[in-house]
Each structure stands twice: as structure tokens, then as C-alpha cells.
Design goal:
It comes from Iodobacter fluviatilis. With about 550 residues, the protein is α+β, with helices and mostly antiparallel strands. The chain contains 13 helices and 23 strands. Helix 3 packs across helix 13. It is globular, with a radius of gyration of 24 Å. The site of flavin-adenine dinucleotide has 44 residues, from helix 3, strand 17 and helix 13.
């Protein structure tokens, strides 16, 4: 099979034109082409009046070696690499020490799935509820302003990304193509096939719900166990070696291999692990607001006359500005045609995030506009100081929003002018249970407010209309990534001071997003499997 990269065609080309472009690139006749398929499809929208689709194609041709030799100077044509996943281990019969996985976010789910596929029959523990019940609790906050601290946007089956845009791309280095395995498993669980080839795949919320159920069923079928409402209270430790976990109800589950995939919001668990002596350190994260614009405005700015084209879908954006106070302001987790969601997990606090459905056809585009912060400058002194900083601004947002789980909001024009908003403009907020119009300048540290004010006109130069006075800010966005890193050894992937503990995913500081958390889950499953086999060998 040959891989042909950089095949470029106009947006509205036919299937026949794609085939003809391939034949031309390979300089072969139609009778020499056995079949071809699309490996990846992306677009180049730099020239809005002439948007191009860019393909990587896989083609089976007659006399492949001859064709490849003839085209050897073309660096965009090569043999198709084999990126199919290869299991690193298989569990021996009669294994008694079952690995434990804490958390059913993408990291825990993939760690559990891979361990189950290799025959290790993991026990997976989740503090929140199964996804259907969890959905009801999450709607409880969104519709009635009632927060369930154990079952919400952050906690429960599927983890933090279940009620999300389901964006499935990442900039991580992935030399073993583990991301491909993640996407394949998602397709098996019900994701649309296109996620395998479009450059920026997304799934949307509804499908994610049934996908995580399907993955759970698969794990159980393979001999694994998945338990909900099972919060791990603490580790059972003996001389720096994990010997199991203790649940909040006092039940003890023995295991010498514990995957810690708890996400970035399990603050109580971070504190408990810190008390137990597990090594962790503060890490940088970001603070900011969500901004909403009309999606049609973003589409026109990005795609010009092709706005609304079905292949392009709702437009996204990615913006960065280096402010004169030394801070970087950037857009994060952009959700085209989506809604801003209440993402708090602690009572008396307000946190924003974004989600969308697969169709991405809601009226507003939203994204976090955040400012990078670092422990050395902004929260020095204690490994968990970042958590307290997040709590401070989330509590402030709750208070400024009226202490009812409404979020404080302000129009962009008023934010720049430094005056409170009193009425909405053309952008109607999507956040439920509702927003409270106010002045956001007290809702973040002064350096962040200054940097965001400076960034808006700069962003307007990149996306015409971005600085519109009626765009709406809703606050606060505090959970862009974990404020903590639970350090692990590069080879064994075990905690650097707690043997048998495998810190993983976003909460431990080793992933940021659904795809990278899934990839880290696979890496961790491999490390656990190899560690179990090694210990059996030396015993
Ligand atoms: P999590 O998904 O946070 O999962 C951790 C799990 O551990 C949770 O289910 C939690 O209940 C459980 N847990 C915690 N403590 C304990 C304990 N003590 N005992 C038992 N269980 C415990 N990323 C994207 O790539 N694309 C997106 O479109 C996207 N949109 C998002 C939208 C929203 C609203 C949110 C909140 C996040 C979004 N993200 C998105 C981020 C993404 O969801 C996370 O990066 C990802 O879920 C991290 O995976 P994880 O498995 O490491 O942790």
C-alpha cells in the first residue's frame, strides 16, 4: 500500500476528481489502481475565497515497488506505515493480584479497557454514578441550580469530557500511534467512522454517553469489573509500596498495582494523597473567562463565501496574544455552535466550560480566553497552592453571580470600558442556570484582567468582529488543566516515591484533553501489565 500526502483539491470537488488527482500524482492509469481510501482530510482556509481540501490517501496499485521507485524523489509518497496496535503482554492463567484503576474518565477507561483486553481483569472504581444517572444529576445543576458534589460535569462515568464538544485531537507526540487505537476503540463503541480521517474530529455530547456505556460493557465482558459510587478515600501503603485502596465506605480492596486516573478536579483526593506522602508538585495552568460570539460571524470571518459549507462545518479558531505585562492570553477548548456549561464540582463555586452536540448547530461560538499562570510567580510555596487559587476565584464568581450558581457575565464592550453591563446585546448567553450581568473586573487577578483587555483588540485583527461590543464574557474558567503534577518515573511510569502507584491522565499532569488522556491510559495499562509480568518472573 502506498501513502500519498498533500493531495490538494478545491472544496467542491467530486469523487472522480479525487481519483483523477491521485492517478496524476502517481502517474499511473486507472487500470493500475486497485483501490484507494482516505487516511486523513484537512483543509487550508488561509485564502478564504479558495479554500482547499488536503488529503493523505492510501492506494493499492499494481507493480507497487516499481511505482515507488519511480517516485522516490517525491517526499510525499511512501509505503503506508503499519500503525495497528500491538499488545505488549498477555496475562498468565490464575493471576490473583488484579490491578485497580481509579476513575472512569478517558484515561481510566482506556487503562481499564487495555488491561481487560490483555486479560488482567481490572477492577475500576468511580466515585460518581453510571452515565445515565449522572446525566440527570448534571442537568440538576443546569436546570435547577442544584449541585450534586459526587455526580456532576467532573465526576461520574466517562469523566470530565462526557458533557463536552468531544474534540478528539491533540498535539502530543505519539510515536507509537496510540491515538489511532483510541480512535478505533471509539468507533467500535459507536463514534462516527469519519473520526478516523478528518483532521479535527469531534463527537459531541449525546454520542459520548452511549459510547462510554459500550466501553464499560466491553470491559465487563472481558472479565473486568466497574463499580460506581465507589470513591477511593485513601491508599493502603506499606513501606512506600501500594497494597490496595480503601473506599469511603471503609471497604478495602487489595492490589499492588493501582492506576490513579482521577482527573484535575478531585481536590479532596489530591489532599489525601499529599497527606499520605505521595510526591506531587505544583504546575502551571490558566485562568480566564468564556467568551461567546454569534457562530455565523466566526464562520464568515474564517471561511468567507464558503461559510456554512457542510464539509467545513461550524468554524473554530485558535488565538494567542503575548501581552505587554508578560502574560500570554490564548483561546482554549473552542466549541463551535455550542453552549457554555456550568462545570462546578464543589458547593458555593462557579466554574465555566464548553460543550456542543455533534451537529454544532447552536447559535453561539464559545471558547475560554485564558491567561497562563505559573507556581513560581502566582502561587508559590505549597504543592497544592494552585487548588486554593482556583477555589478563591471560583468562590468569588459564585458570590458576584448572586450566590445561586448563576455565573457573572459582562459584555465585551463594557469590560473594555470598565463599566458593569446592564442589558444583553445581540449575543444571548447559553449558560444555564443563567447569568448575572455585572462587572467582571473583580473576578480574576488584576494582571489577568489587564492582559485580557489588551488581547481583545489584537484578536479582533485576527478574526474580524471578535472584538464586537456585544460579545459576552462569562466567568470563571479555572480548570483548563491540573494545578498539580503527581510525578512518575519515566521508565516504569510509577510514582517516584510510591511503588505500585501509576499516576495517569490529566489529574496527574500527563494529559490535557480526551485523546491525550486516552493515550496515557494505554501507556499506563502497558506499564502495569509489564510490571505484573516482571514481578511474577522474579518471584
Ligand atoms: P477525568 O475525565 O477528569 O476523569 C477522572 C475520573 O476520576 C472522574 O470520573 C472522577 O469522578 C473520578 N474520580 C476522581 N477522584 C476519584 C476517587 N477518589 N475515587 C474514584 N473515582 C474518582 N477535552 C477534549 O479533548 N475535547 C473536548 O471537547 C473537551 N471538552 C470538555 C468539556 C468540558 C465541559 C469539560 C469539563 C472538559 C472537557 N475536555 C475536553 C477536557 C477532558 O474532558 C479532560 O481532559 C479529560 O476528561 C481528562 O481525562 P482523565 O481521564 O484524565 O480525567
Amino acid at each position: 500500500m502506498l501513502r500519498i500526502n498533500e493531495v490538494k483539491l478545491p472544496l467542491d470537488h467530486s469523487e472522480e476528481e479525487l481519483k483523477q488527482a491521485l492517478l496524476k500524482r502517481l502517474a499511473i492509469s486507472a487500470s493500475d489502481l486497485i483501490r484507494f481510501s482516505i487516511f486523513k482530510r484537512s483543509y487550508d482556509a488561509r485564502k478564504r475565497a479558495a479554500i482547499l481540501l488536503i488529503y493523505s490517501l492510501d492506494a493499492e496499485v499494481k507493480q507497487e515497488a516499481t511505482v515507488l521507485k519511480r517516485l522516490s524523489s517525491d517526499r510525499h509518497i511512501m509505503l503506508t506505515p503499519n500503525i495497528e496496535y500491538q499488545y505488549v503482554a498477555s496475562a498468565p492463567d490464575g493471576l490473583t493480584d488484579r490491578p485497580v484503576v481509579i476513575g472512569t474518565g478517558p484515561c481510566g477507561l482506556f487503562a481499564g479497557l487495555l488491561l481487560a483486553q490483555m486479560g488482567f481483569k481490572p477492577i475500576i472504581l468511580e466515585r460518581g454514578k453510571a452515565v445515565r444517572e449522572r446525566t440527570k444529576d448534571t442537568w440538576g445543576l443546569w436546570r435547577k441550580g442544584e449541585l450534586n458534589p459526587e455526580s456532576n460535569v467532573q465526576y461520574g462515568e466517562g469523566g470530565a469530557g462526557t458533557f463536552s464538544d468531544g474534540k478528539l485531537y491533540s498535539q502530543i507526540k505519539d510515536p507509537k500511534h496510540l491515538g489511532h487505537k483510541v480512535l478505533q476503540e471509539f468507533v467500535k463503541a459507536g463514534a462516527p467512522d469519519e473520526i478516523m480521517y478528518v483532521s479535527k474530529p469531534h463527537i459531541g455530547t449525546f454520542r459520548l454517553v452511549s459510547m462510554v456505556e459500550s466501553m464499560r460493557a466491553n470491559i465487563i465482558e472481558l472479565g473486568g469489573e466497574v463499580r460506581f459510587s465507589s470513591k477511593v478515600e485513601q491508599l493502603i501503603l506499606n513501606n512506600g509500596q501500594v497494597e490496595g485502596v480503601e473506599l469511603a465506605n471503609g471497604e478495602k480492596i487489595p492490589s499492588k498495582h493501582v492506576v490513579l486516573a482521577i482527573g484535575h478536579s478531585a481536590r479532596d483526593t489530591f489532599y489525601k494523597l499529599f497527606e499520605q506522602g505521595v510526591y506531587m508538585e505544583a504546575k502551571p495552568f490558566s485562568l480566564g473567562f468564556r467568551v461567546e460570539h454569534p457562530q455565523t460571524m466566526i464562520d464568515s470571518a474564517r471561511f468567507g463565501p464558503s461559510a456554512g459549507h457542510p464539509i467545513l462545518g461550524a468554524a473554530d479558531y485558535k488565538l494567542v496574544h503575548h501581552a505587554s505585562n508578560g502574560r500570554s492570553v490564548y483561546s482554549f477548548c473552542m466549541c463551535p455552535g455550542g453552549t457554555v456549561v456550568a462545570a462546578a464540582s464543589e458547593p458555593g463555586r462557579v466554574v465555566t466550560n464548553g460543550m456542543s452536540q455533534y451537529s454544532r448547530n447552536e447559535r453561539n461560538a464559545n471558547a475560554a480566553i485564558v491567561v497562563g499562570i505559573t507556581p513560581e510567580i502566582d502561587f508559590p510555596g505549597h504543592p497544592l497552592a494552585g487548588i486554593e487559587l482556583q477555589r478563591k476565584w471560583e468562590s468569588k464568581a459564585f458570590e458576584v453571580g448572586g450566590s445561586t450558581y448563576q455565573a457573572p457575565a459582562q459584555k465585551l464592550g463594557d469590560f473594555l470600558a470598565g463599566k458593569p453591563s446592564t442589558e444583553f446585546g445581540v449575543v444571548v448567553p447559553s449558560y444555564t442556570p443563567g447569568v448575572h450581568l455585572t462587572d467582571l473586573s473583580d473576578c480574576l487577578p488584576e494582571y489577568a484582567i489587564t492582559a485580557i483587555r489588551e488581547a481583545m483588540p489584537a484578536f479582533d485583527k485576527q478574526i474580524k468582529g471578535f472584538g464586537m461590543a456585544d460579545a459576552l464574557f462569562t466567568g470563571v474558567e479555572t480548570r483548563t488543566s491540573s494545578p498539580v503534577r503527581i510525578k512518575r518515573d519515566n521508565d516504569s511510569l510509577q510514582s517516584i516515591n510510591t511503588k505500585g502507584l501509576f499516576p495517569a491522565g490529566e489529574g496527574a499532569g500527563y494529559a490535557g484533553g480526551i485523546l491525550s488522556a486516552g493515550v496515557d491510559g494505554i501507556k499506563i495499562a502497558e506499564a502495569v501489565a509489564l510490571s505484573i509480568l516482571h514481578e511474577l518472573k522474579v518471584a
